[in-house]
Design a protein that fits this description.
- With about 80 residues, the protein is of the alpha+beta class.
- The chain has one domain.
- The protein is about 50% helix and about 20% strand.
- The chain has three helices and three strands; from the N terminus they run αααβββ.
- The chain has helices at about 1-15, 20-35, 45-50, and strands spanning about 55-60, 65-70, 75.
- The protein has a three-stranded antiparallel sheet.
- Strand 2 (about 65-70) and strand 3 form a beta hairpin.
- The termini are far apart.
């Protein structure tokens, strides 16, 4: 969690210094670097989830979209899960 907090602090510093396009690239690089260095999680971590996810849109059981705080949208593919 400390490493994730540091990444968000760096993100905030970049926001003050860079344009939106460069910021998105910087945020993406920081997040991917963090995820590459971390082991896969085997259980839900509420703290990490709330730091990364802005909201979840549920249209149906098969149509769920996760909106990250940086604006990235990821659709869940749940139709194959049944």
């Amino acid at each position: 969690m400390e490493q994730l907090d540091e990444l968000f602090k760096q993100r905030d510093e970049f926001m003050a210094e860079q344009s939106d396009g460069a910021l998105s690239k910087s945020q993406y690089k920081m997040l991917t670097d963090f995820l590459k260095n971390e082991q896969k999680q085997t259980e839900f971590d509420k703290d990490v989830f709330t730091k990364l996810i802005e909201k979840i849109i549920v249209n149906s059981r098969e149509d769920i979209t996760f909106i990250f705080k940086d604006g990235t949208e990821v659709k869940a593919n749940l139709s194959a899960a049944e």
